[in-house]
Design goal:
With 164 residues, the chain is mainly α. The protein has five helices and no strands. Helix 1 packs across helix 2 and helix 2 packs across helix 3.
C-alpha cells in the first residue's frame, strides 16, 4: 500500500470521526439521560416497563421494529440534520436504513436466542460477561460488521452490484 492511499484512508477516518462527533455525543447524551430518567422518574420507568413487557410477549416483532427505528430511522434523522453527513439520496437512504436494520433485528434476535441456548438466560455477572465477550469477539467482527460494511458499500454504489 502506498503512502498516499494509506494517508487518504487515514484522513477519511479522521474526517468521519469529525463529521460524526457531534451527532454521536448527542445520541450518547440522550441515552444517558434516558437511563438516568428511568431511575429517577416513575413515569419513564412505567413507560419503559410497558415496552419491556411487549418485548417479552413479542420478541421478534419488538426486535425487528426497535432495531429498525433505533438503528435505521433515528440515525437517518440525525444525518438529515447535519449537512456534512446528509445522505445524497435521502428517501432511498431511509428505505435502505429502515429495511436493513429491520433485517439486522432478525439477525440479532436469532443471535440472542443462540446465546441463551449456549450460555443460559440467567442474569449473573458470569453469564452476562460470557455473552458480551462472545458478542464482541465473534458476532460483531465476524457477522455484524462485515454485513453492515457490505450493505453500506452497496448503498454507496447506488444499490448496484455491478458498481460494487
Amino acid at each position: 500500500m502506498s503512502d498516499k492511499s494509506h494517508s487518504s484512508a487515514w484522513f477519511a477516518g479522521v474526517n468521519a470521526v469529525k463529521d460524526n462527533a457531534i451527532p454521536s455525543l448527542i445520541i450518547l447524551s440522550l441515552s444517558a439521560l434516558l437511563v438516568w430518567s428511568y431511575y429517577n422518574y416513575i413515569s419513564v420507568q412505567q413507560t419503559l416497563d410497558v415496552l419491556g413487557d411487549f418485548n417479552k410477549q413479542h420478541v421478534w416483532t419488538f426486535g425487528i421494529l426497535s432495531t429498525a427505528i433505533t438503528g435505521g430511522f433515528i440515525p437517518w434523522c440525525f444525518r438529515m440534520c447535519f449537512p456534512s453527513i446528509r445522505p445524497a439520496h435521502p428517501f432511498l437512504d431511509l428505505v435502505h436504513s429502515f429495511l436493513w436494520w429491520a433485517w439486522m433485528g432478525v439477525v440479532v434476535c436469532f443471535f440472542y436466542g443462540l446465546q441463551a441456548q449456549i450460555f443460559g438466560d440467567s442474569k449473573t455477572v458470569s453469564t452476562v460477561m460470557k455473552k458480551v465477550l462472545f458478542d464482541q469477539i465473534f458476532f460483531t467482527p465476524v457477522v455484524a460488521a462485515p454485513l453492515n460494511a457490505i450493505s453500506h458499500y452497496w448503498k454507496d454504489h447506488d444499490w448496484s452490484l455491478d458498481k460494487m
